[in-house]
Fold these 2 entries.
Entry 1:
Amino acid sequence: MQADKKEWPEAVGKTVEEAKQLILADDAGIMIQVLAEGSPTTRDFRMNRVRIFHNDKNIVVQLPRRG
């Protein structure tokens, strides 16, 4: 468990479900927000949130990071 981890480069190229498992294994209390590639987002910074951006094949296309 790595609650201080800020990025998950190993999740890029994986399915959304695989990425969620990787992230939750490091911090079970984190809130994961799943969004389609290019979706608009708010600019507020939250250390307890990770956004996962995916393509139409449900593959992670952007580096998931806290914020």
Entry 2:
Amino acid sequence: MASNGAGKDAVDADHPDAGPSHSPRTSTSDRSPRSSMDNASPEERIARLEEELGATRQEKETLSNQYRNLLAKLTAMRQSLGDKLREDAEELDRRENTINNLQAEVTGLQEQLETVKAELVHANNESASLSAQLAQIRSQSDSSSSDVLSLTREMRELRGEMERLRVEREEWENEASRERERREVMEDEVAAMERREMENKREFDKGREELIAERQRADNLQEVLSEFQAAKDSELQQATQELESQLRAAATALSEYKLRAANAETRLGELSNDATRSASLAKELKEKNQIIGKLRHEAVVNNEHLTEALRRLRKNSSDNNVDRRLVTNILLAFLTTHRADSKRFEMLSLLSTILSWDDTEREKAGLQRVGATGVAGKAPSEKGKARSRKEERSAEEEAAMNESFSNLFVEFLLKEASQGQGPSQSGPSDPTSPLRSPLPGMAPSTWSPTGTSGTNTPNVRPRGLSNSSSVSGIGSGQIPQYVRKSSWGLQQALRGDKQERLQ
């Protein structure tokens, strides 16, 4: 309510024709007819005043429409900028992981080069010893023809060994050229990443200019937008500095590897296994990229579902208004879910809160134990018992009325999204995990689905919008960041509700 009042003040400041500033102009323009109005009859005065009242109401409607259009433009601009910055941050994280993997691979190859170099030194020593033996055999060749034949055979073997070493040296040179080609490919990728970074900076500067232009027309949002801009600038600068430092380290490692590869002259028989390993790693990387694309597509679909659900919740914001089709879909999902699944209890708890079940109905449904409530406060008389039950029931009804249906449904959606994320990160979900939905009496502000996800560090804020609006922040800023997957029951409920709306 305070932000709406500030927005109206800003609109009145931008449009000097609205509000009290209009009355002086009207009084100035009507100064000459005002004297004639004093001489006119009461009916004419009333008609004149009604016309002025109608004109004033029309101007008020015009200013109200302009204010609503301005708020809609600001909301769309904030959402588009948040999506662009999230995509850029995800791209930088992915490139950072790729560079780390390549750096680890380069380190392994350097160790293998050291091993091969040691083997080359050993082979040179053996060749020197064989040459000495050959000289000794030549000095003794005149003693016996049989010795000459044996020395000739050994010489052929040594020549074959030297030829084999020469072939291995050529193979090593070919491998070194292939490594140089790999280095050039990595340098091209680094240059492409730098170009993308420059494009992201240009887009960021363009968005900042748009924010400045919008801030001039909406002074009430200046503080929130400045905080958002500063946070995103710091995150982007930090990510850019880390990426540049890693790129410099990778370039230094590649230069060292190039010098060592140029001086290496030994056999590479064991590098065939490394080639097959590289092919398998490339295949695995391609499969993981496909999985990431699929997860991103599913995250976009789930985000659309959540946006549609939140739009309906904002449209039907009454506490006592229950979507019959939505409750039906949740009940059908509850019946089709396996009995050992922990989501059945959570679905039943959500239905009990939506339908405002009392203690007896919750005991029949198995949500609480029989006689669990009212035991500690049992009075000696039946009148005291009835009074305590009445007070407890009235307190529960008041709490249920104060807790809106939209907040409960948003918590249910966030809980399902967190459980969908669990199998992709840490295996099967634990029924006793702290990511389960809160109790029906718990306020929405005391429970956060991202508090235990493990992805947000103290130095990195969630890549979403500012928390000025809880519903809009949940719908567009937090959930798509983690590439979440909603459960099958939630997707079925949302899909059935959407089909019912279309029909």
